[in-house]
Structures are given as C-alpha cells and as structure tokens.
Amino acid sequence: MAFNFSISWQRKSKANKQTQGNIPTGARFNTLGGSIVYPYDIPKNKQVNSVLVDMYREIPDISIPINAVVESAVNIPILHVNRDGKRIENSPVLRLLEKPNFKQTYNEYFQAWLLDTLLLGNSYTNKIVPVGFKDIGELFVIPAEQVEIVLKNKKTGDFRNNDVSYFLWKTGIENEKIKIPKEEIVHFKELGKCKNAFFIGESKLYPAIMTAKSLRYNYEARVKLYRDGGAVGIISSKDKELPMTPQDIKEMEHYLMSKNGMTGDQSPVAVSKSPIEYKETTLDAKKLMLNENKIQDFQTICAVYGVPSIAVNDNSNSTYNNMIEAERALYKRAAIPNLKKYLDTHTRIFGLEEKGEKLIADETAIDALAKDVQIMSNVYNSAFNAGVVTEQEYRTAIGENPNK
Description:
Blueprint (H helix, E strand, L loop, with lengths): L16 E2 L9 E3 L4 E3 L10 H11 L1 H15 L3 E4 L10 H7 L7 H15 L1 E7 L9 E5 L4 E5 L12 E7 L6 E5 L3 E5 L19 H20 L4 E3 L10 H15 L8 E3 L13 H4 L1 H15 L18 H27 L8 E4 L5 H19 L5 H7 L7
Parallel strand pairs: 11-12
Antiparallel strand pairs: 1-9, 2-3, 2-7, 4-13, 5-6, 5-10, 7-8, 8-9
Helix pairs in contact: 1-2, 2-4, 2-8, 2-9, 5-8
C-alpha cells in the first residue's frame, strides 16, 4: 500500500500587499515555534515548522503514516444533514466544497487542510465572500508554515484580555506579506501544551520530536555507510625502529580500498608512524541496529497518528491478525476522527449549527466499516426490543435524531 501526493497553489492580492514599514508593531504569534515573536526577532526565530516540513519531505517513515490518514479520510463521502439526521439533497454547501476555489478540487483542498493539521497542528481557512453577496464564494487553505498571528496587545500574557488583530501571510515571494482580517480566517488548532496555546495549536510530532530526529540520524548513518564505508582505522607500527615501509602502507591501503569498495578520490585510511596500535573505527551496521531502531521509531510515529503500522507495510507488527482488521483500525482511530475535525470546522464556517444542520461522514460507504455499522445497528435494535435501552438511546446510537 503506498500513499503519495503533491499539493501546491498560489494566490496574490495587490490590494492587500503590505510592506514591513506598514505593519503595526504588535506582538506576533509565530506558528513556526508557538511563541510570541516581535518584528525585530523574526530573523532569529528558530523555524520549527520548517524543520517539520523538511522531515515530512525527506523521511518516508514520517510522511507514510501521515499520507495514509489523509488518503483514507479524503475517500470517505460526506453528507449534509438536517436536525432530524436526514440528508439534504442538492446541498449548496457540498457543491462549494466539491470546487472550493478556482485552483483546487475537493480532494486537493481537503488534503491541504488535513496535512497542515496533522503535520503542523494548525490550519487556516480563508473564506472569501464576493462583493455584494452574503454567502461564501470561495475557500482557500493558507499554508500554515507561512502564517503569523498578530495580537492586539503585545504587553500582556493574559489571554483573557487579548485577541487576534489579524493574520499575516508571508507568501515567500520577494518578501510579500498579505494582511488578512481575522474575520476572513477560520483557524483550527490541535491541542497542545506549547507556550500561548490559547492562540495557537501544537503539532502532534512535538512529543515525538526526538523519535523524528532519530529517524533522520538513522538515514544519515545509512548514507554514510553506503557512500563512505565509515572510517576504517589507523595503520601504524608499534616498533619505532621498524616502521611500515611505503610499500607496506600502499599494500594495506589497496587491501582496505578493495574491501570497502572505495573509489580513487576517497580514503578511509589514516597512516601514522607513531607507536600506536591499529584501531578499527568502522561503523558496524549490525552493532548500530539501524534496521531494528528504524522499525521501532516508525511504529512510534504511526502510534502518534493512530495508524496501525501493519496497514502501511510494517510486517514486523503482529498486533493485528490481518490487513482487514488493520484497515478497520486505520479508519476508526485515524481517518474518521480527523475527518470529523474537518467537518466540524466547516460546519462552523458555513454557520450550519445555527440552523440545526451539520456535515457528517458517511461511514456506511466504507467497506471496512460496513459490517461494524450493521452489527451495531442490530445490537441496539435487539436491546431496544428487549427494553434494555430507551428509544432515544437507540436513535442516538444509529445516528438518528433522539428527540424525533
């Protein structure tokens, strides 16, 4: 099973383009680190989110489980239902989500939103209402690693007496900065214990950042072993009176070169005529346990995102008896919960809760879960007929309005 996709889009607005001189000097929450940053500190700020993005791009053990969640969730149909749980046909909300903007399809838009949420802990939806209209015309996902939150008051850490002033989108093109009013952004943030968590979310990878770094070091060690063969050692003679002759050294170098597969412009050999012993310093792949450590780290990253590692080709994991069970767990523990975050956010974006409406996932359309849904319905139906549960409990369990 393989998951791979690429998302990119770009939008310019001359009317909103700002220069550094025009930007108010309010405090900034920088999504790159989750801390308050002032304008003069920005160049010095460690760009944590950039590191996470690089890890996602460079380390398959990180991108594979994340992509598995995204690709599973994007294929689940969504429904627009009323307060009675009945499907709303020809929903204008669903029509807009099918083509949220002139650049993206539903799949591309949803993937961009969920990828930001999973990797960076924050997603920023820019809702565009055309002039003269009251309904949303377009939706865009502003890349989370390019967004800064500017607060009204930079002199207090009391979030009760502070608020967002606006969102600043640093597009990365010739220092272009676009000021977006807070009313035009719907910000979803993951829970976390980062500094100033009231205003900003935290990546799920933060608690596992050492594991993520370990994976990077693992791959770097592999590259070193494959490319350079490691540092082989030091050749020397313990007898000062009888040092190795130039011919001895040349023959030893030739032997080590052929043994380690080195090329003419590389040398794993250091030569000394001092009276020291030969010390082998070659990196031993078996002693380093690169494969074993990599598997453990991969399983940890999968656990962070609720992905059964066996569902993404980890044959060492015997927790699940078969792929069907693992796929079911992938949907239940990862895909559906994350899709629900998206649906709840967009229920809020469109103001559906005010009308008693909402967006929900159609779990009955998922082959891996169809049997579970039917079993649950049968169990509660039997319990209701036996008088074990009330009618309201029965309706709630099968997804219907309990007050009907």
